[in-house]
Amino acid sequence: MAKSKFEYVRDFEADDTCLAHCWVVVRLDGRNFHRFAEKHNFTKPNDSRALDLMTRCAQTVMTELEDIVMAYGQSDEYSFVFKRKSNWFRRRASKFMTNAASQFASSYVFYWKDYFKDQDLLYPPAFDGRVVVYPSNQTIKDYLSWRQADCHVNNLYNTVFWMLIQRSKLTPAQAQERLRGTLAADKNEILFSEYNINYNNEPPMFRKGTVLIWKKIKEIKSKEIKPPGETEGKQVEVTRIRTKPVALHCDIIGDTFWKEHPEILEDDS
Ligand code: DGT
Ligand code: MG
Ligand code: MG
Ligand code: MG
Ligand code: MG
Asked: tRNAHis guanylyltransferase catalytic domain spans which residues (predicted)?
């Protein structure tokens, strides 16, 4: 078919192909979730409903999109790691990012009621996205370590901050002043001596965030079959092996996780 004289406008499209053989990360982050959390009465500092909903959305993204090997989430953000050799949409960054962000946002609305039974969704949430390309296994591991370290630092701070406010009735300004210049050890000490809280016993989901990896899951379903010649159906159990994104709340900074799951980063060539 002859091309129209307008075809040349394609030349104005920017090339955003992700560098070959590199890990592609899409990180999504809730837009203005400080306000969103307030308006929807999220519990402070952590709302399990909100975190579980985020994870549900991330599982949907992993299942619906191609070539995601793992994901890591905390607070209002999720990072998705695509296979080094992925050729999905010819590795165009805008395709990775916009598919992830729109699938995530629509899932957030779609699954809202499953997690927030007594809280209406008051306005449509949005998520921004960015793409970063990492050239080696060390840099992708360091990227994920950076996000988990961020989760730890913020959560330790927020846990003490909200104890000072909720239990000791300090104002936010007073709590901030009390924590100015304190190190991690000081915050652990305040939690332990003033509130009898051992930070290490706080829920792993809050301290470590959520790691999603693919695992084979055995599904047992009851199915009705009708033997030939019989009118009555009967129930039988069928077992199926399915691969699903499963949530873990473990450390991914040390080597243990990567040694236990060598398949995640295996094609390092
Ligand atoms: P942004 O990302 O620049 O559009 O603005 P924000 O407000 O989303 O800022 P960000 O992403 O740096 O911080 C996340 C906000 O979400 C932070 O203000 C606390 C809030 N948030 C996230 N998870 C929870 C939660 O479980 N409970 C509560 N109360 N707030 C949360
Ligand atoms: Mg931000
Ligand atoms: Mg945000
Ligand atoms: Mg954030
Ligand atoms: Mg189309």
From this structure: 6-135
Name 70's bridge partners. Answer: 81, 213
Cβ-proximal residues to 1 (8 Å cutoff; 6+ apart), any chain: none
| Whether the Cβ atoms of residue 45 and residue 34 lie closer than 8 Å to each other | no
- Distance (Å) from CA 150 to ligand 3 centroid: 14
Helix (H, G, I), strand (E, B) or coil at 170: coil
pLDDT digits (tens, 9 = 90+) for 188-242: 999 999 999 999 999 999 999 999 999 999 989 888 888 888 888 888 999 999 9
ipTM given for this complex: 0.96
Ligand 1 pocket mutation, candidates 29, 31, 32, 34, criterion most atoms within 8 A of CB? 34
Nearest CA to ligand 1 atom 6: 32
Q: pLDDT digits over 123-163, tens only?
A: 999 999 999 999 999 999 999 999 999 999 999 999 999 99
Q: What are phi and psi of 20, to 5 degrees?
A: -55, 145
Cα three-residue angle 93-98-103, rounded to 5 degrees: 135
What are the pocket residues of ligand 1 if the criterion is a CB atom closer than 6 Å to any ligand atom? 29-34, 37, 42, 44-47, 50-51, 75-76
Residue nearest to atom 29 of ligand 1 (CA): 44
From the CA of 31, how far away is ligand 3's center (Å)?
5
The structure tokens listed for 239 are 């077992």
Token pair 């970063």 is found at 132
Q: Please state the pTM of the whole predicted model.
A: 0.94
